[in-house]
Amino acid sequence: MLKHALRRLRRAPAFTLTAVLLLGLSIAAAASIGGLLQAVLLRPLPFRDPDRLVWVWASRVDRDKAFFSIPELLDHLAATRSADLIACSQWGATLTGDGEPERIPAVRMAANGLTLLGIAPAAGRVFDASDEQRKVAVISHDLWRRRFGADPRALGKTLALNGEPYEIVGVLPVSWTFPNLEAQVWVPFDFRADPRRAQRGNNFIRAFGRLRPGGTSWSLQAEMKATQQRLKEQYAEAVKTAPPHVHAFADELLGAVRRPMWPADVRQLEEMLGAALAPRRFQAFVMLLFAGAALVLAATGLYGLTAWSVAQRQREIGVRLALGATAAGVTRMVVGEGIRLSLAGLLLGTAVSVAVARALPAIVPGAGMDASVFAVAPLALVGVTLIASWIAARRAGAVDPMQALRAG
């Protein structure tokens, strides 16, 4: 039976190739969509108590999203009681040392920023407040893999950034992502000692924070609005400023509709976060619809191919039945071919899924081929193939030998 089924599949290469491609690509598509959804929506954010994190945009009369100057943010830090605020800024750095010189995006962040986020590094440690005056660096998982081959001995080595030595103390996890900033290297930023400390009109600082116990986004918004009004009256450079906007950190991270949390809004933070994530959830629903449509189309196509194959073999099946083959034997033969097609499609789908899983993290950090998703998608599609084969096989077993021979 096995040799006959394999011989039969070899004699119909167009049918075999089409069925295997349809099944394999459907498995790969379903697994990839599932992995993307898992990374974007279902996997917890890689921060401690992410619902307590906020992102703060400075604001101007002509735009809602702007940067702070160092003195402006220091004034907000001094007056804020609802949250611990962290300063960070984009930094272009030239990396030299081991390997070819490379221009990489980097971020300078207040030394307690990564500890405030609650990040668990993949290797080593993150810098903290005690590192404010030190030349240390935390590198991305991608840079660690690409530049150092993911070697743990990279910890303690020196990076030359813009000609200055920085000791590598840690590696960020592969799932690490951060809103509104691209970086391969993170270094401590002592902005109080920065030469731009007195330049109130030099706006380059971004800010995020963690709400303190008892603090809310609305109380933070009210405090920053009051400070901004006071600064506007004291300094000519602040005339064109507007109250800063406080947003849910997850809103900025996931790219949802970035609606500011005004103090007049009395909804709970969870409701605000739910509203912010609503567009993403709708997108997820649409993606799931497409995945479901792919499954239905795959099932329809596989059933159509199997039914067509059986119809083309009507005379052969009639001869088999006339020579004494049983309907159950014909059913087993057709289902056996479906099983072999399923196995071939599963192998192809696995290969394509692995290739896609390797490419996805470059597009969506943390995305990949989730084991649970990949287990469900192939089982569902292989099950569909077997059901389609069984239905076609039942029809094949019901063929009248005499009618099949006359039709042939």
- The count of DSSP E runs of length 2 or more, i.e. the number of strands, is 12
Please identify the structural class as seen in this structure: alpha+beta
Number of domains: 2
User: What is the global morphology?
Assistant: elongated
Measured distance between first and last alpha carbons: 24 Å
Radius of gyration: 30 Å
Give the proportion of residues in helices.
Answer: 40-55%
Order of helices and strands: HHEEEHEEHEEHEEEEHEHHHHHH
Strand order of the largest sheet: 4-5-10-7-9-8
Name the average pLDDT. Answer: 77
Q: Can you summarize the main beta sheet? A: 6 strands, mixed, barrel
Low-confidence stretches: 256-277
Number of helices: 12
Estimate the strand proportion: 15-25%
Key features of this structure:
408 residues; alpha+beta; 2 domains; elongated
Q: How would you sum up this structure, described in words?
A:
The longest helix has 44 residues, at 269-312. A 6-stranded mixed beta barrel has the order 4-5-10-7-9-8. A hairpin with a 2-residue loop joins strand 1 (53-60) and strand 2. The radius of gyration is 30 Å and the shape is elongated. The protein contains 12 helices and 12 strands. The protein has 408 residues and is α+β, with helices and mostly antiparallel strands. The chain folds into 2 domains: 2-43 and 280-407, no CATH class; 63-239, no CATH class.
